[in-house]
Structure prediction request, 305 residues.
Amino acid sequence: MTAYKDYKLCLKIKSPAGTPWQSDTIMGSLAFIHANFYPDTMVNFIESFASGNPPFIVSDGFPRGLLPKPLSWSVQPDEDDGAMAKLRKKQTMVAAGDFDKIRAEPSHSRYAVISEPWMTHRVLHAAINRETGTTFGEGMGGLYETSGTYPRSKNSEIEVYVRARDDSVGRVEELFVELSKTGYGCDKSVGLGQFEIMRERDTILQEHKFIPVNGANGFVSISSFVPSKSDPTDGKWKYRVKYGKLGENISGNVFKKPLIMLESGSAFRLSKPPAAYYGRIVRNVAPGKPEAVQFGFAYPVLCKI
Prediction:
């Protein structure tokens, strides 16, 4: 099996993001950057992920110090803890230390209560009449609202984990640097999705080691993903229906087909030795651009179930 290493990337958020920091969208954004800089190698880039030996995978983006609450079998708040148990049951993320405790002991139930990790930022706009070049008159319904999310973490920072082959680390860093120049997600042109890469000792990707778990017999995904036919099915998960769009500079139909994806925190029992990744590339996702794909890889972290 190809050797991979884990890394962590810290981003300082400069403006709200109009698009959630989900792994498939992050990967799509990096792929778009790659297509702009290396158009002649784009087909090979996509096929390197589809061939069963992806050069790298990424996690969702999490407010600094947080990770998804594992949906392991025994992770149930202690009912004797009263109101705190109700709060724990609702929360979708936990502190990184509690994430490791739950991985090692699924019955760990008194994890720290955290408030909603994302804030919503709303901006009211006035629509412009294309005939007059001015706003609409009173009572004409010319107001509309846009919104974006902002991490509630200290210093407004988020963390993205990367699992990469040694020969791909430099390319990953290059793609993230270029993405930081344009911004992430929708409405970049009006200032949303702006971020700065935090460096340590002039290094972008910081090597990271997840704490080993004795007796691990499963994994929790820290990315959004689409399972492949051979992936484990004995698990607990949450899912979302993704209504994606193609990147900028695409003419015609920019809408992708609805796609069911499992959310980060989903956990599965293993019956075989663990793999470095699960999930797959999803093809034929956009009627207006048949060659477009969706990156649906699970970033597995071993746990006990």
Notes: The first helix runs from residue 23 to 37. The chain has a mean pLDDT of 88.
